[in-house]
Amino acid sequence: MRHQIPVERLGFRGVAMATPVENCVHCGLCLPACPTYQLLGREMDSPRGRILLMKTALEGRLPLAEARPFIERCLGCQSCATICPSATDYGALLLSFRAHAEESGARGKLPALLVRRLLVETLSHPARFRAAALFGALLRPLRGLLPAQLAAMLELLPRVLPAAMRLPETVPAEGERRARVTLLTGCAQSVLAPGINRAAARVLACNGVEVLIPRGQGCCGGLALHVGAARKARALARRNMRVFPTDVDAIITTAAGCGSGMREYGLLFGDAPDGSAAIEFAALVRDVHVFLDELGLRAPRGQGHPQRLAYQDACHLAHAQGITEAPRRLLQQVPGLELVQLGEAEMCCGSAGIYNIEQPEIAARLGARKAAAVLRSGAAGLVSGNIGCMAQIGTHLRSADSALPVFHTMEVLQRAYDA
Asked: Minimal CA–CA distance to 70: which of 18, 107, 17, 33?
């Protein structure tokens, strides 16, 4: 029997989710790959269990409020989609269901809704986030007295917030120009680790790429999309679609979550009037690792970092975008650098947008598990391609009394070029 979900029951206008529902054959191969199932051991906290819940709720046979807690415990890491033999597009179904639940007002009690709204409205705007982070530093000594969600948010902040960094609108290519791109600077990343954007622009320039950094750009909308706030995500996406020039070779992202979110613009806009423009815009989006790997890396001059580094696969690179080899190929070209394999490399670290704030207990267990794997590897440092993973794992390394440094891939390459 075909289970076609009515379009009007979804948060994304004109997007029917029949395929993800009917493709799932409930084989159970996703169970070992699902972090929440591994931790909690309940069928309804597994991908196939959640698909059944979403289908039943969307067909009107189960109140949304009863399905919601299980869906909210999903990280959205999409490790299940990587292993699924039926090619079930679980990510698309999850995003659509969350948008529908948000529009229906069935996403939990008022305190949880207020916290989620506050986080989205704060993290999506760098100036607001910086002000909140500075205020949060003052509250850090009191975190033991605060609710778990607020305490988790304070714990994730760096001990010292980096100074704000203003990049030029144009970074010229060094030597022969090989490409011309625009760079998304992001929201949380531009506050927590602005050096990543500077490093990316520097590495691209060293490889003959002219980099445009448009003024007026902002959050890609990925964070709002991840929690089901589709209207907010569309508003943020439209702003960037107006600001970013499209007469370029690529729109470069340096955060896995941003790249994954922007590639979903076609799903986000559906058959809206600007849906075609959104699809064309999304087609230009390239992760910086893939772009440099395909362009061909100019040989770095030196090493500049500890020789043994572990690379951590961010879920929204490895699973959502299928990017695993390009970052490793880039790092392997750094003279003297040895890449160390992580145990349980496919397991999510617990970051997942604002999951580590909304679901602090589960996220903390996953973060501690990932940090332990990093320490067991014997690496002298960790490399990742996503600011959320860097903050999450860095926090749990500190909790384990480790000063192991955490880098973005572009920071490693920048130091190699400048060594």
From this structure: 107
For the domain spanning 170-294, the CATH number is: 1.20.1050
> Are the CB atoms for 183 and 245 separated by under 8 Å?
no
pLDDT score for 304:
66
CA distance 79 to 84: 9
Mean pLDDT per 10-residue section of the chain, whose length is 419 residues: 41 46 83 95 95 88 89 94 88 86 68 76 90 88 82 86 92 97 95 96 98 95 88 93 96 96 88 90 97 96 79 95 96 93 93 91 96 96 96 96 96 93
Q: Give the pair of three-digit tokens for residue 12.
A: 């994304």
Using alpha carbons only, give the angle 23, 28, 34 rounded to the nearest 5 degrees. 100
Q: Which residues of the chain are in CATH 3.40.50.1860 domains? A: 301-418
Domain with CATH 1.10.1060.10 in the chain: 7-104
Render 160-172 in DSSP notation, one character per residue. Answer: SPPPP----SEEP
Q: How far apart are CA 172 and CA 291, in angstroms?
A: 17
Query: Which residues belong to CATH 1.20.1050 in the chain?
Result: 170-294
0.85 exceeded by the pTM? Answer: yes
- Residue 120 has what pLDDT? 86
> β-strands 338-340, 308-312: how paired?
parallel
Cα 37 to Cα 17: distance, rounded to the nearest angstrom: 24
CATH topology of domain 7-104: Fumarate Reductase Iron-sulfur Protein; Chain B, domain 2 (1.10.1060)
